[in-house]
Amino acid sequence: MSLSTLSIRRPVFTIVINLVIVLFGIIGYTYLGVREFPSIDPAQISVRTNYTGANADIIESQITEPLEKAINSIDGIRNITSSSNQGSSNITIEFKLEKNLEEAANDVRDKVSQAVRSLPQDIDAPPVVSKADADSEPIITMTVQSDTKDALALSDYAENVIAERLQTIPGVSSVQIWGQKKYAMRLWVDPVKLASYGVTVSDVRTALEKQNVELPSGKLTGANTELTVKTMGNLSEAEQFNNIVILADGEKTVKFSDIGRAELGPENLETKMSESGLPMVGLAIIPQPGTNYIDIANDFYEQYDQLKKSLPGDIKLNIAIDNSVFIKKSVVEVAETLGIALILVILIIYLFFRDWAIAFRPLIDIPVSLIATFFIMYLCGFSVNVLTLLAIVLATGLVVDDGIVVTENIFKKVEEGMSPIEAAIKGSNEIFMAVISISITLAAVFLPIIFLEGFVGRLFREFGVVIGAAVLISAFVSLSLTPMLNAYLMKGGEQKKSKFYNLTEPYFVRMNQGYAASLANFMKRKWISFPIIIGCIGLIVLFFKILPKETAPYDDRSFIGVNVTTPEGATYDYTDRFMQELTQLINDSIPEKKVSLVITSPGFGSSSVNSGRIRIALTEPGERERSQKEIAADLTKWTKKYSEAKTNVSEQPTIAVNRRGGMPIQYIIQAPNFEKLREKIPQFMDLANQNETFSNVDVNLKFNKPEINVTIDREKAESLGISVLDVAQTLQLSLSGQRFGYFMRNGKQYQVIGQFDEKDRSAPLDLTSMFVKNNKGQLIQLDNVIKTEEKSSPPQLYHNNRYLSATISAGLAPGKVSVMA
After folding, report:
1. Which residue among 85, 366, 433, 636 is least crowded, i.e. fewest CB within 10 A of its CB?
2. What gap in Å lies between CA 562 and CA 32, rounded to an integer?
3. Is 529 in contact with 756 (CB distance < 8 Å)?
4. Residue 152 CB neighbour total at 10 angstroms
């Protein structure tokens, strides 16, 4: 007994089976997440280490290299890239697509913990391992501002209240605080007063270490009472730090206030964020690779509503940029297309059957097959996204084919005089193998996509599986439910024709006659088919070659990014002045701007004091005359006129691993040493700049950062009783903004930072005003034992898969798209 015969003879059983299929599909749908595209982000782990005051060479050799060597032995790594910057090392490990994110993070943490012993002992803190690239684009950016609180208090509230609550959202890798001014106790040291009192910067740090401590003191235990002893040795106020005794030799007592001043200030003096010129703090939500952005956004807005209710009256929150809005719109638009497709399929089936009673039966295949597909998606771990919805839109026309064929054959048998049940059994059995072959053929076209490897395979796997599953399910439905419905709902005998049927029948008769005549004429000249086939193949090859190729066209997401780099060696003040000038240009020239977040020296990723970022949110496409692409092109043209800095205007790619913006074309050059790179990079840049396809060609590795090399006369230093360590520590403590210790404020721990005032470290000549103590306690001026030489060096050093590397990036000229090799 065939499936169709069983279904006709057991109608209740057939209805129950199909209802169960629909029920499982509905249940599966409730568990599906919503994304713009399938999860194609590989597991990506970032390792960041800070070493205040160290230049790129020291960071590269003492931190980046040992960490990379340890990490490189982890299984499943696809790519390792790193940047060694002034004061920080950032390593990004990209794993193969099949690698689990949590497993990858744990493997990296294990290797990093083993390598910590190889790192300098005075690094700011152990390396931080996070489950995302430090330069990843945020999905939501929120601003925090206040009319009464200063930047320090506002940053403190943002970090300790708002960010801590947002960090608990599932799928959030980190919450970056843009423009953060974190509390710190700044110890500004005067080198002239130091020398006059016969003390050094090392004496200041030693005194602080002895007088700013809090050690466990034990307890007192009596007959009936036990008391915990707490020694109040920590300092917390600026006045207390000013009163620290640096030197007491019986004749004189030197306090810190005698040789400098202590004040509560920001830990990072060289960062700032503003929106259209108004200072504020921003919180950026960085997602983990592969997470559901819609779920993160929904959880964020729940937290956002609760935060607004509990905020102090003088603090205002505002959503500046929300990239998840476009994702939701994309999914909704495809869902609308699905609705339109359903309506069109229904109308077309009715137009050909011209009887609602008959057309209704094959239409049942559509909801049953498509709803059941959601359960397959749930079993496979898929999500509702643009490609899976596109597959369902395409499947809408495919799944109804089987039902139409079965219904038409049964209807033909009824017209020949059979009873509906007999016609259903015979008609469905006749067409059984044809339906199976059609469905398997269609599935065989799409299912092999699951065997594709890499980025493309991961991207289109869900698309192929959804179409294949929908077609196979429709075969089952058309051979079970459709025959049963026709058997019991179709009327026997001669079918009564509707007025619409009689009106349109002459048209269908003429169409059949015309097709039969044209087919008969073509069969008399069968040889014509071969030139037609050859011509079609030729046109396919021709158009494949001449048509431009790219992964996906850029969508108008109402978002533009601008990255700014001022000349190497430029100060923070220089960069900030240029950012203000650029802000004025944007405010005056882009009326479509909704929000522009301007960050000078962001302080995350590979940023430095000579860098800045601008994130521009535009009004909705329907509310403006210019498109996002036109605005970006105009902004690129305007910014090229500025010679003070290099700017890169970018749009966010439609489909990109990890959703990062930036230039679409990148070449990586590797060499055994940086001298070889220095030789080859200019040659490559000349060729790239001459190519009309590219615009905004830039290279990340530069060799133009001014640097002072300090050489110690070892013999002379030894004769004066000075060690190399004494000289190096004096320079480090005086110039680098080194951490001298910690202090407590409102139950939180913050850094104590010592440094010469800016006016005392503004020129190479200031090195001569520093003194170091010899082994007899005498002060020796540094210019007696050191020589200085000005040179240029790379501000950042880069590795790619452990090789020394440079990355050349380029934008595409107007009208150009990336061409596949």
Report:
1. 433
2. 35
3. no
4. 17
Give Rg (Cα) of the chain: 36
Looking at 314-420, which runs of residues are DSSP E strands?
315-322
Between these two residues, 664 and 394, which has the higher pLDDT value? Answer: 394
Average pLDDT, integer, range 288-300: 84
Strands 88-95 and 44-50: antiparallel
The tokens for 98 are 């099949």
CA-based end-to-end distance of the chain: 56
Give the amino acid at 533: I
User: Which residues are CB-neighbours of 47 under 8 A, at least 6 positions away?
Assistant: 67, 71, 89, 90, 91, 92, 93, 108, 112, 127, 128, 129
pLDDT at 42 over 60: yes
Q: Which two tokens stand for residue 204?
A: 């200041």
Q: Rounded to 5 degrees, what are φ and ψ at 355? A: -155, 115
Tokens of 646: 């290099």
Phi, psi of 643 (to 5 degrees): -95, -10
Confirm if 322 and 140 have CB atoms less than 8 A apart.
yes
572-589 vs 628-639: helix crossing angle, rounded to 10:
130
The confidence score (pLDDT) of residue 821 equals: 36
Contacts of 614 (CB under 8 A, 6+ apart): 561, 562, 564, 579, 582, 583, 586, 596, 597, 598, 599
pLDDT at residue 44 tops 90: no
Residue 526 gets which letter from DSSP? G
606 or 610, which is more confident = 610
Angle between helices 454-489 and 420-446 (to 10 degrees): 180
Element (H or E) spanning 382, and its range? Answer: none
Beta strands per DSSP E along 458-548: none
Q: Which letter does DSSP use for residue 74 in this model? A: S
Listed in sequence order, the residues at least 6 apart from 664 whose beta carbon sits closer than 8 Å to its beta carbon are: 653, 811, 812, 818
Say which amino acid occupies 245: V
CB of 515 within 8 A of CB of 783?
no
> Looking at residue 762, what DSSP letter applies?
S
How far CA 323 is from CA of 168, 388, 473, 616, 713, in Å, comes to 20, 21, 36, 12, 57
Burial of 723 (0-12, 13-18, 19+ CB in 10 A): middle
Helix (H, G, I), strand (E, B) or coil at 811: strand
Average pLDDT in the 640-664 region? 73
C-alpha 406/C-alpha 475 separation (Å) is 10
Give dist(CA 55, CA 794) in Å, integer: 9
C-alpha span between 176 and 317 (Å, rounded): 16
Within 10 angstroms of residue 317's Cβ, the number of other Cβ atoms is 15
Which of 328, 329, 324, 332 minimizes the C-alpha distance to 296? 324
pLDDT grade for 663, boundaries at 50, 70 and 90: low
